[in-house]
């Protein structure tokens, strides 16, 4: 390698540009190769997915509560900034010799290869994608670095050299753009969105009862009873939504069964499909948080599938695995319980499952937090014991069993507005799925936080014990600063505890309170 003299260093801007263009070439080459060996092997995706898996539970918890559904966007943006800085740094370190930059590229490439090897959803071949990145990045860096060197007069770029460098730089930029687009296009050939659109109408053999009018107080600020699909909360570890075509999908049921079953999409949709209204909740939901939603899920009773497979005595856990290698452990008895009505769902609110909610198929088990029940993009169910297998979040410190806790939330007032003193409407939701809500009580505290008496709220029409229930109350409120609290009572007679606990390891407890001002 040619070392330039001290006064023959590349201009800083040129050096930085060499680094950035090498990065672009590396990412594009990896993305293109990933189109053939698995979309998850695209280097940024693989590194991001590994970062998610290595994230400690408290940080995941923080990311979910701080950024919600945008947590992955924030991660990707953060990675983009880090990569860009690394590329500029690699360029600037290499103003004299390309060696430091090549070292940085090799280290980053090795990290990406390691990330791909640790992905549970990728084969060995997938390492070709980060390898392509490494090679393209190094070659581009070397070539552009050489072109940027002044040929004769040290310290200045001769016009011809400058032109040669600019042509090279333009070529790399254009080539990277084309390779990236080609990767996108080829990868999109296995198009899940097109497959979903082609599903058409799913025949409903047993529709859910219509939601009665007056089941929500949406005009007062509660959610609508059914959550539209695009407003349904979304939580998962998938950095890119797994794209599975219905025609490529199968579900295998194996393990402690008499007969192993493999079902495809056509076989599932041809069965008599049952529709059930179910409220789902995430264990990461803080008291008062948004990660609870309700939909009409359409599918096949999971219990029927298990009965056909023949569950052997001693089986305790259904260890389900998704397309992207996420795993989930669900109690066998909950799934076999006919009253609970667990589904292998393929439809949601009158449509095929949206891609981000698990297309082609997912599990839905009323009354259990999503991380122990609601596997999206499900490909495999192994009937096993608790001792034999630890699912994804269990090995990260969350509870083995996680029934949804009886909870309630105030949706109005929202605490930001100043309201006229006098009659104030308080409204919200309460849920105790599989049990049902029989009461909600609210309490108005003086601004001194001296607790007032609990008083009953009015409940909206009940829909099903597996769903949430809306409530409202009118309070007579003098001017000032106030705090209102709510607590649910479920059909077992249990009154929601006021003791505060954080979401980890098995769901938050405590009363939701809202502070507001009247004048
Ligand atoms: N494949 C897969 N399925 C998953 C998850 C995941 O990370 N990967 N997260 C679970 C969690 S924690 C919850 S709360 C629910 C959320 O389902 P939703 O995004 O459709 O609301 O999905 C569950 N199913
Ligand atoms: Mo969750």
UniProtKB/TrEMBL annotation:
<keyword id="KW-0812">Transmembrane</keyword>
<dbReference type="InterPro" id="IPR014756">
    <property type="entry name" value="Ig_E-set"/>
</dbReference>
<dbReference type="GO" id="GO:0008482">
    <property type="term" value="F:sulfite oxidase activity"/>
</dbReference>
<feature type="transmembrane region" description="Helical">
    <location>
        <begin position="165"/>
        <end position="186"/>
    </location>
</feature>
<dbReference type="GO" id="GO:0006790">
    <property type="term" value="P:sulfur compound metabolic process"/>
</dbReference>
<keyword id="KW-1133">Transmembrane helix</keyword>
<dbReference type="InterPro" id="IPR036374">
    <property type="entry name" value="OxRdtase_Mopterin-bd_sf"/>
</dbReference>
<dbReference type="Pfam" id="PF00174">
    <property type="entry name" value="Oxidored_molyb"/>
</dbReference>
<dbReference type="GO" id="GO:0020037">
    <property type="term" value="F:heme binding"/>
</dbReference>
<dbReference type="InterPro" id="IPR000572">
    <property type="entry name" value="OxRdtase_Mopterin-bd_dom"/>
</dbReference>
<feature type="domain" description="Oxidoreductase molybdopterin-binding">
    <location>
        <begin position="240"/>
        <end position="392"/>
    </location>
</feature>
<keyword id="KW-0472">Membrane</keyword>
<protein>
    <submittedName>
        <fullName>DMSO/TMAO reductase YedYZ, molybdopterin-dependent catalytic subunit</fullName>
    </submittedName>
</protein>
<feature type="region of interest" description="Disordered">
    <location>
        <begin position="495"/>
        <end position="519"/>
    </location>
</feature>
<feature type="transmembrane region" description="Helical">
    <location>
        <begin position="124"/>
        <end position="144"/>
    </location>
</feature>
<feature type="transmembrane region" description="Helical">
    <location>
        <begin position="100"/>
        <end position="118"/>
    </location>
</feature>
<dbReference type="GO" id="GO:0043546">
    <property type="term" value="F:molybdopterin cofactor binding"/>
</dbReference>
<feature type="transmembrane region" description="Helical">
    <location>
        <begin position="72"/>
        <end position="93"/>
    </location>
</feature>
């Amino acid at each position: 390698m040619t070392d330039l003299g001290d006064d023959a260093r590349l201009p800083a801007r040129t050096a930085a540009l060499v680094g950035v263009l090498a990065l672009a070439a590396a990412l594009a080459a990896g993305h293109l190769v990933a189109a053939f060996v698995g979309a998850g092997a695209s280097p940024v995706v693989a590194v991001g997915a590994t970062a998610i898996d290595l994230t400690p539970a408290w940080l995941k918890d923080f990311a979910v509560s701080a950024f919600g559904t945008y947590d992955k966007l924030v991660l990707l943006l953060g990675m983009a900034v880090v990569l860009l800085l690394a590329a500029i740094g690699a360029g600037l370190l290499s103003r004299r010799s390309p060696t430091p930059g090549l070292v940085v590229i090799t280290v980053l490439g090795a990290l990406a290869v390691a990330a791909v090897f640790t992905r549970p959803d990728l084969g060995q071949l997938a390492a070709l994608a980060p390898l392509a990145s490494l090679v393209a990045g190094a070659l581009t860096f070397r070539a552009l670095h050489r072109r940027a060197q002044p040929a004769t007069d040290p310290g200045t770029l001769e016009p011809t050299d400058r032109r040669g460098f600019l042509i090279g730089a333009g070529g790399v930029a254009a080539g990277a753009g084309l390779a990236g687009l080609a990767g996108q296009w080829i990868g999109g050939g296995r198009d899940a969105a097109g497959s979903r659109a082609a599903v058409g109408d799913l025949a409903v053999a047993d529709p859910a009862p219509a939601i009665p009018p007056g089941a929500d107080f949406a005009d007062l600020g509660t959610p609508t009873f059914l959550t539209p699909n695009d407003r349904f909360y979304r939580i998962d570890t998938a950095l890119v939504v797994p794209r599975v075509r219905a025609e490529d999908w199968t579900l295998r049921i194996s393990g402690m069964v008499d007969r192993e079953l493999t079902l495809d999409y056509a076989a599932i949709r041809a069965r008599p499909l049952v529709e059930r209204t179910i409220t789902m909740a995430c264990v990461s939901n803080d008291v008062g948080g948004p990660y609870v939603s309700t939909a009409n899920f359409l599918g096949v009773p999971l219990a029927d599938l298990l009965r056909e497979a023949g569950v052997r005595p001693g089986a305790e856990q259904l260890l389900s695995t998704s397309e992207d290698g996420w795993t989930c452990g669900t109690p066998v008895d909950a799934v076999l319980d006919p009253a609970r009505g667990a589904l292998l769902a393929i439809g949601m609110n009158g449509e095929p499952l949206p891609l981000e909610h698990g297309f082609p198929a997912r599990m839905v088990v009323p009354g259990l937090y999503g991380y122990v029940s609601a596997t999206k993009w499900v490909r495999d169910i192994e009937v096993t014991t608790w001792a034999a297998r630890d699912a994804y979040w269990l090995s990260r410190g969350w509870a083995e069993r996680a029934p949804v806790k009886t909870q309630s939330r105030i949706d109005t007032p929202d605490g930001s507005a100043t309201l006229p003193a006098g009659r104030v409407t308080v409204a919200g939701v309460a849920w105790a799925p599989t049990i049902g809500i029989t009461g909600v009580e609210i309490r108005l505290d003086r601004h001194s936080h001296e607790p007032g008496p609990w008083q009953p709220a009015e409940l909206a029409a009940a829909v099903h014990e597996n769903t949430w229930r809306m409530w409202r109350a009118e309070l007579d409120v003098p001017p000032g600063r106030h705090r209102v609290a709510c607590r649910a009572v479920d059909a077992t007679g249990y009154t929601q505890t006021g003791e505060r606990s954080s979401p980890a390891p098995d769901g938050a407890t405590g009363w939701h309170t809202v502070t507001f001002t009247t004048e």
